[in-house]
Design brief:
The chain is mostly beta strands. It is built from two helices and ten strands, in the order αβββββαβββββ. A hairpin with a 2-residue loop joins strand 6 and strand 7.
Length: about 220
């Protein structure tokens, strides 16, 4: 399967999605999208030079190790009028993990953790997107690590939109979620003499995203 084939992600649903009107009683307390965001509808791609896909985890019970995955590919479709039509796919190179310590990075890419030799990619594919606050989106999707796929929920905050001096349209989002790494088979650990584990089971994933609008093919 080609994760980034045009048909895999950006094909819109065949059946039309009914959009409730602002005055409909069915909307109840539902949050309605800002009409100004309709102009942002289209295809986007994460700009690696101005974005970060990172993580943090408690180490030895008393400190936090932070790292990132600087090598990845992405395809995004954002629908400003109807967020439920939005889609996202990200494929990350596991071998690119960077915590600033070469020896630690080698351990993380080895068989105790990511096993990058046998599992070179980890992926996230969205399934449901909801607007839950004025600038807050909830994106549910499937995270796959080491051939194990499990659902995760990201909370994404819309930061803003600009056209940069080079004419590129840019949109920003910040997102985060916390997972239990053992759910994906990342179970390696060492017990401390004082009790507790060397590496926490809880892992926080962070997405600081600056996306560039993809030009429409002529």
């Amino acid at each position: 399967m080609n994760l980034f084939s045009r048909s895999s992600l950006l094909r819109r649903p065949e059946a039309p999605v009914k959009e409730p009107s602002a005055g409909s009683a069915a909307t109840g307390g539902a949050v309605l999208p800002d009409p100004a965001l309709a102009a942002l509808t289209g295809e986007w791609m994460i700009d690696p030079a101005h974005s970060r896909i990172g993580f943090s985890v408690r180490h030895a019970m008393v400190t936090t190790v932070r790292g990132s995955f600087p090598e990845y590919e992405s395809r995004l479709y954002f629908d400003g009028r109807n967020p439920a039509r939005s889609r996202a796919e990200i494929s990350v190179s596991t071998a690119s993990v960077d915590t600033g310590v070469e020896q630690r990075d080698a351990h993380l890419t080895g068989r105790d953790f990511l096993d990058a030799g046998r599992h070179p990619r980890m992926t996230f594919i969205s399934s449901v997107v909801q607007l839950v606050g004025k600038d807050v989106y909830r994106m549910t999707g499937e995270l796959t690590i080491k051939d194990t796929s499990r659902p995760v929920v990201l909370e994404l905050t819309y930061i803003g939109y600009v056209t940069d001096p080079f004419g590129y349209e840019r949109v920003g989002f910040d997102g985060t979620t916390t997972i239990n790494r053992s759910d994906w088979g990342l179970t390696y650990n060492t017990r401390l003499a004082e009790g507790g584990a060397m590496v926490s089971e809880r892992l926080r994933l962070q997405f600081d995203i600056a996306a560039i609008r993809t030009p429409v093919a002529s």
